[in-house]
Amino acid sequence: MVQKNEKYWQEIFDSVDMNYLPTYYLKSIKVEFDDKTIWEIDLQQKKKEELPVDEILEDFFAEYEDNIKSINFNVDFLKVKRDVIKKTQRFLKNK
Hints:
By secondary structure, this protein is an alpha+beta fold. 46% of the residues lie in helices and 22% in strands. A 3-stranded antiparallel beta sheet has the order 2-1-3. It is elongated and about 50 Å long.
């Protein structure tokens, strides 16, 4: 079932320039290497490890950057949506 305001949110997400995306909004990343090998890294699972996810990713990219062909990010848009709504309501309430 399609939500009534799904198109509205899709337009917002399409217009956002994501030069920086906090890692807590990422579910996973799919990395394709030059040799066509594909790794999918479950960041929800990585959050349970001792190192912060951003450090894990930084180390990963430093080690493999020369061999990476493409990266696809799986973003938790429901979490982004909830946070945007919450912060917008708080902003409008305080204005």
